[in-house]
Amino acid sequence: MKPTRAGTKWAHVSCALWIPEVSIACPERMEPITKVSHIPPSRWSLICSLCKWKTGACIQCSVKNCTTPFHVTCAFEHSLEMKTILDEGDEVKFKSYCLKHSKSKEPGLSPARSKAPPEVQKGGQRAQRLQELEEEFFTRVQQEDLVGVVGLSLRLVDFIFQYWMLKRKANFNRALLPPRQGEEGLELQPQEDSIHTRMRMFMHLRQDLERVGAAAACFL
Predict the structure, then answer these.
(1) Which terminal CB of the chain, N or C, has fewer other CB atoms within 10 Å?
(2) Is residue 107 domain-resident?
(3) 151 plus 212 within the same structural domain
(4) Spatial separation of the C-alpha atoms in residues 213 and 202, rounded to whole Å
(5) Whole-number Å distance between alpha carbons of 5 and 148
């Protein structure tokens, strides 16, 4: 969670990203969260289709003519399809899909027209699978296993996990740390640039972790 501009209230970063009326003043630091007051009353009155609660602001399915409402946090908990798309104008668009429309397959061409050479089909299937794995990265983490490894409470591990998940979602599902040199299948950066990139990343992570530590102290 991140504070609002006044610093008196806190809001989920995921909600700030997917609720269209809300903004984040500094995208790099992901804070403060602004324009919460711009959320219309109609959004506050929606009942989440997942938790069935009429509290907080809901978003609605991005599929045309589908108005199914749900909380952003509930969507992540139920592994709904939540996409970040970079359009041709370098504008980031956030798409969300209800339980019915998540991971739905688009209508394809007829078998005769859609048929491709086996090697092309195999490569396309592999690329699609890799993209799916990248989008569902957070489902590969078992919080219960981490509790024994790091020696922290499940509640604190969940707090850190949610922060990491949102940070990576904001980075278009890409890993927060740059790839190591020599990693197979990836383009290599010059060593000097890689070191500087890592140093900048570590500085940002350290600042963010200090905030997480301060917030986590409230749970201990």
Answers:
(1) C
(2) no
(3) yes
(4) 16
(5) 37
Both 86 and 147 in one domain: the answer is: no
Report residue 216: phi and psi, to 5°.
-70, -25
Three-class secondary structure of residue 19 per DSSP: coil
Q: In terms of C-beta distances under 8 Å and separation of at least 24 residues, what long-range contacts does 129-137 make, across chains too? A: 134/173, 134/174, 135/81, 135/83, 135/173, 136/79, 137/168, 137/173
Residue 41 lies in a domain: yes
| DSSP state letter for 26 | E
Q: Is residue 56 part of a domain?
A: yes
User: For residue range 47-102, what is the model confidence (pLDDT) as tens digits?
Assistant: 999 999 988 999 999 999 999 999 999 998 888 988 888 767 667 788 999 999 98
Which 3-state string (H, E, C) describes 88-154? Answer: CCCCEEEEECCCCCCCCCCCCCCHHHHCCCHHHHHHHHHHHHHHHHHHCHHHHCCHHHHHHHHCCCH
89 and 145 fall within a common domain: no
Residue 72, classified by CB atoms within 10 Å of its CB into exposed (0-12), middle (13-18) or buried (19+), is buried
Nearest to 176 by CA among 142, 209, 130, 131: 209
| pLDDT score of 17 more than 80 | yes
Domain that includes residue 48, residue range: 1-101
* Domain annotation covers residue 118: no
pLDDT for the residue numbered 217:
56
Q: How far apart are CA 33 and CA 21, in angstroms?
A: 11
